Amino acid sequence: MRMKHGVRFTFAFDRASRTATAALIASLEAVAGDDPSCTVRAVLFERLDEIDFDTALVEFVCMSAMTSGFPGRAEALAALKARRAGAFRSVIGWPHATGDPRGALEAGFDYCCAGEGEETIREMFELAASGRDAAGAGGVFTMRDGGVAGERRRRAVDLDEFDALPGRTRFPTYIEIGRGCMWGCAYCQTPRIFGRSERFRSPARIEETVSRYARWGMTDFRLLLPNALAYGSVRPGAPEPSALEEMLGRVRSSCRGGRVFLGSFPSEVRPDYVTPEAVAVLREYVSNESIVIGGQSGSDRVLASVARGHTVDDVRRAVDVAKAGGFRVSVDLMLGFPAEGPADREATFDLAEELGGRGARVNMHFLMPLPGTPLAGVRPAFLSGDERRRLDGLAQRGIVRGHWRRQEETARRWLDREERSRDA
Ligand code: SF4
């Protein structure tokens, strides 16, 4: 039998990428359990420069980034390469790399993992362990002869074949209970990365993870789903309260004394899924006092332009239903959509004010045109001085909060950077 090469994967993670990292470690751990040639370690991103490398191993350093964090990842890679050239192969994954494999590779990464990583990372291990190039794994892109080579995976992973959290190492974070989204909002990477069919982990599989981590002392269980009330749903806009209840009931009973969170950050709820029945189930089982509803705009014209599939009145109705069901409510709104004119923006400010009057809080965001989405590279409508002043006034009155200033600046810097690199 041919000797296998020892392979080590080092995952550099931060708070935002912790859940994605957990899924990859969980996938590799299942292999490493039977195969000592596979080792895995995780390191906080800011401590990446402290790691050592073993020349006897094939070393991979894996990072993941959203678009706003990508320049920082590329800089960290350049610094590590400058000190430890040739000691490792670098891998980048997650939404930014999935949307723009070429850009990720041109920034210096050896491999770009596009899409879901659980099967890809196992294939990379098998290839590297047998002395072959990990670029042969499905879903991996690399530079070859000056061009980008690679193919996206065709099949979505079956979530029940993989643990949400590592089963050997304690790595607590959000528990991903489903993936994909049947909606296609123009600014959102989720359906473009994970597909438009929604897949859910089974209640039994979720319960297994919760039980194990409860035994390991975890007390807060935060469940993650792009559209939190869609668990088990099979039709657009129609929640399945019975599926939700079965899953939440099993989670609760497997973590007695623990707290369960769903529908609060970072999961949000589409307004059309906020029905009295679904809210009643949520209220019975979760510990969060508030839920976050994705409202996005106060203008029906703008909502239609980004294919949201709901109206402003749906947002008003959802706020009332959620409040009547016993929740405090936050509504996510966003500014900067390309189709948004001054009147649309006024409508969003008016909606924020109206929702504030109904006792809701508004989280205001500014659009980031993300790679891989229909809005990639499109310049958002930036705010005027008067609009900023109106927003500041709403913030001072406690109606609006959020990081829209920083997000607007990030979007501006990102697009300037893109335009400079296109012109170079
Ligand atoms: S409903 Fe939410 S997750 Fe789905 S596409 Fe729209 S923004 Fe993305």
Enter the CATH topology name of the largest domain: TIM Barrel
Helix count? 14
So, CATH architecture of the largest domain? Alpha-Beta Barrel
How many individual β-strands?
16
Largest sheet: 7 strands, mixed
* Largest sheet strand order: 2-1-3-4-5-6-7
Report what the structure shows:
- It is built from 14 helices and 16 strands.
- The strands form 4 sheets. A 7-stranded mixed beta sheet has the order 2-1-3-4-5-6-7, with helices on both faces. It has a 4-stranded parallel beta sheet with strand order 13-14-15-16.
- A hairpin with a 2-residue loop joins strand 6 and strand 7.
- The model has no long low-confidence stretch (mean pLDDT 94).
- By secondary structure, the protein is of the alpha/beta class.
- The relative contact order is 0.08.
- It folds into 2 domains: 6-150, Cobalamin-binding domain (Rossmann fold, 3-Layer(aba) Sandwich); 164-423, TIM Barrel (Alpha-Beta Barrel).
- Helix 1 crosses helix 5 (118-129) and helix 8 runs parallel beside helix 9.
- The chain is globular and about 70 Å long.
- The longest helix has 20 residues, at 404-423.
- The site of iron/sulfur cluster has 11 residues, from helix 6.
